[in-house]
Amino acid sequence: MTFIIYGVGAIGGTIAGRLAHSGQPVAGIARGTQLAALRANGLLLRTPGGDIRASFPVAADPADLAIGPGDVIILAIKGQDTADALARLRAAGVTTQPIVCAQNGVDNERAALRLFPNVYGMTVILPADFIRPGEVAAFGTPKSGLFDIGRYPRGRDATAEAIADALSKAGFAAFVHDEVMQSKYGKLLSNLGNVLDAAAGDAAEKSDILTSARAEAEAVYRAAGITLDGTGSPDDKRRRDNVRVGDIAGTDRVGSSTAQSLARSTGSIETDYFNGEIALLGRLHGVAVPVNAALAALGHRLVADKLKPGSLSLAEVQAFIDTRKGMN
């Protein structure tokens, strides 16, 4: 069983580096300067416990890898890139291989299930930053990350158990979850603040805007019949016990994955799959979601204006939200 890591960035790089270091067969799919760096020098994974150097085959397209029937494909890309990745996997001849959505948001699994029969959701709690091509910092300690994994839409099987076991042996806290989407919807509540973190920095964490966004989401969940079990949330005891943010000499955290996208000027942002997901559910179930709808629009403004993380004040963010009133 080879783990095919589709997207060797902060999350995918940490997973690939840890799995390879533990002796698991790994291959990666990357692009641009990251692809070139990985081919030239392998991956440097920096952790609170020391640096790890991992080398593994890496390609620009899944068609360039010999993906076998027993391999596991882990999607570690942003939600806006999922459709293209799935199309490339199908073109490469992937059929029944497990597709593991190690991604934030809750839409990726449904998109994957349209094309592939064996889809697994994975909640990812993993504080990591892309530093430069070929180098990733994983700040989690004593475990690099925490994962809940289960079949989509629900259930467990031997494959989920085998994946969780391999991840656990590689230095993660991995758990098989019978209702994995409950965990992922819980994580989504945490991701609603990503765009605020990207726009205004640390001040956003305890802002009234974030409180309102989460209150809207909770109202939407009730209307949609979505239940949570506490896993994936910041209050999850397993998270507190297994994944604390440690120090890495000479390296500071950039922030959320959304802030990292802005810092790297990637030209896209995940907000449509976070706040935009709540906006979608609100419109489907007749729940007013003005704050989340405005925050989804804010994400596009940040990208269009090529703003760097922390460029706006909370007052400016609130003013933007106010201009969007009535546009829910």
Globally, the shape reads: globular
**From the 3D coordinates, which CATH architecture of the largest domain would you assign?**
3-Layer(aba) Sandwich
What is the terminal-to-terminal distance? 47 Å
- The number of distinct β-strands equals 14
User: What is the SS-derived class?
Assistant: alpha/beta
Percent of sequence in beta strands:
15-25%
Determine the mean pLDDT: 93
Compute the number of structural domains: 2
Tell me roughly what share of residues is in helical segments: 40-55%
Please, what is the CATH homologous superfamily of the largest domain? Answer: NAD(P)-binding Rossmann-like Domain
Specify the number of helices: 13
Helix and strand run: EHEHEEEEHEHEEEEEHEHHHHEHHHH
Side by side, the strands of the main sheet go 5-2-1-6-7-8-12-13
Structure in words:
The structure is a single chain. With 328 residues, the protein is α/β, with parallel strands linked by helices. Helix content is 42%, strand content 18%. It has 13 helices and 14 strands. The strands form three sheets. The protein has an eight-stranded mixed β-sheet, with helices on both faces. The model has no long low-confidence stretch (mean pLDDT 93).
